[in-house]
Recover the amino acids of this structure.
């Protein structure tokens, strides 16, 4: 017991140094990850460079975090018994991993929803403009409009908002309340797009029925 207490006494400063290093690396990686996402967004907006570099640095940051937590769990296993260690491992690693994988899956689903709702809204606006401005029907025809708008919609739907959507969704889904889900940014945009598209299509349908 005396040997273990002396061993713990000598390792106590190292534990604090490792905790400070882990906290500093975690804050630095999160700051670098968010800063690089904004920088790459601006770079893509001005130069239209492929986002492979962003995906590489995004995967690198999460790899660095996983390695840091891996060594943290190895070091904490010296001070915990097996039951406490496995409970600690389950509570701090497996449950956040589940939310992380769910957030990754939802980010891809959100990208698809964004693309289709952008397309749906632009199509409804196209029908409304065709109805209101009949003289511009030649310009807003389907081939010319989609030849211009489809690359823009594809670029907007595949913009590098992975880290922001990941942070928003992972923190929003920790509380499963309808109000939180309603006013969270992905769901609120989807509801807004649905409402605007339904309103435009209903307005167009009513005006066509009145003309008949």
């Amino acid at each position: 017991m005396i040997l273990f207490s002396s061993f713990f006494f000598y390792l106590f400063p190292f534990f604090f140094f490792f905790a400070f290093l882990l906290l500093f690396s975690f804050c630095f990686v999160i700051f670098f990850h968010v800063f690089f996402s904004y920088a790459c967004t601006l770079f893509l907006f001005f130069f239209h460079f492929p986002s492979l570099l962003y995906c590489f640095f995004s995967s690198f940051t999460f790899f660095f975090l996983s390695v840091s937590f891996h060594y943290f769990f190895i070091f904490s296993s010296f001070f915990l018994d097996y039951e406490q260690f496995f409970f600690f491992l389950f509570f701090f690693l497996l449950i956040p991993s589940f939310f992380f994988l769910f957030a990754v899956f939802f980010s891809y689903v959100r990208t698809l929803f964004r693309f289709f709702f952008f397309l749906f809204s632009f199509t409804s606006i196209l029908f409304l403009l065709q109805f209101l401005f009949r003289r511009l029907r030649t310009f807003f025809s389907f081939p010319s409009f989609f030849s211009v708008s489809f690359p823009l919609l594809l670029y907007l739907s595949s913009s590098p908002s992975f880290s922001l959507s990941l942070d928003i969704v992972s923190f929003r889904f920790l509380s499963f309340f309808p109000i939180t889900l309603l006013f969270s940014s992905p769901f609120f945009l989807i509801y807004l797009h649905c409402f605007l598209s339904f309103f435009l299509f209903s307005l167009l349908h009513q005006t066509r029925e009145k003309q008949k």
Q: What stands out?
A: Residues 95-212 form one domain. Residues 1-5, 40-63, 136-194 have pLDDT under 50 and may be disordered. Residues 130 and 136 are 7 Å apart (CA to CA). The helical segments are 2-47, 52-76, 82-132, 142-157, 162-172, 178-183, 185-211.
